[in-house]
C-alpha cells in the first residue's frame, strides 16, 4: 500500500511539472538509444586513427559532427563516450550506495559503542583529500581499466550517503515499530532489511538520483584533467578535454561542444527529476 501511494504521489508531481515529464521521457529515450547504438559499434574500429581526416568539419565524408585530431568520427566517439560515462556514473552510484547504506544502517541501528567506533572511522575518511587520492592512485596503477576506475571512485564516494543514512536510522531505530519487533524477538537482519530499510526507501531513491549527477560530473572532470579513463577509452570528459587547446576551443567547436551540451543536459535533467521526486516524498510526509 505504501509503495502504491508513493508511486501515485510521484506520478501526480510529474503531471504538475511538465518540465520534469519532458526531462524524464527525453532522458529515458536518449539513454536507451545511446546504449543500443553503442552496442552496435565496433570500438576498436572507431578508435583507429585516420590522419587524412584530421579535424574534418561537420558533414565531410559523411561525418555528421566532423572529426578530431586523430581523424576519428566525433559522433561515434560521442555515442561510445556517453555510454562509458553513464555506465561509470551508474556503477559508482550503485556501489557507493550499497556501501554507504550498509555502513549507515549498521551504525545507526546498533548505536552506542558500535556507532561511536564507526563514526570515528567516517570522520577520518572525511579528512582525506579524496580527489587528490584518486588522482594519485590512478597515476600509479598500470594499465587500469573502467572497472578499476569504478572501484577507486566507489571506495571514496560513499561517505556522504553513510552519514545521511546513519542519521535517519538513529531516528527510526527508536520508533515503536522497531522496538516492538525487538520485543517479539525478531532478528536484527530481518528488522533492518524488512522493516527499517523500506522506510528509508524514499530518502535512498532521491539520494541515488542526485549522487548519479555528481558521479557523472566527477568522472567527466577527472577525464578532462587526464586522470580519468585511459586514452584508449572514449568518454565525455576526454572529448571536452580537447577544448584545453585555444585553437580548438575557439576554431573547432564541433570537437567539444556536443559533449559539453550532453553533460549539461544530463546533469540538469537528473537533478531536476531528483528534486521532483523529493518534493513528492515531502508532500506525502506532510499529508501523513
UniProtKB/TrEMBL annotation:
Keyword Transferase: no
InterPro entries in alphabetical order: BP-dependent_transpt_permease, MetI-like, MetI-like_sf
Location of the ABC transmembrane type-1 domain: 82-274
Main location: membrane
Bilayer topology annotation: Multi-pass membrane protein
Transmembrane parts of this sequence: 20-39, 86-109, 253-277
Compartments, as annotated in UniProt: Cell membrane
Keyword vocabulary terms for this entry: Cell membrane, Membrane, Transmembrane, Transmembrane helix, Transport
Domain of life of the source: Bacteria
Family: Belongs to the binding-protein-dependent transport system permease family.
UniProt name for this protein: ABC transporter permease
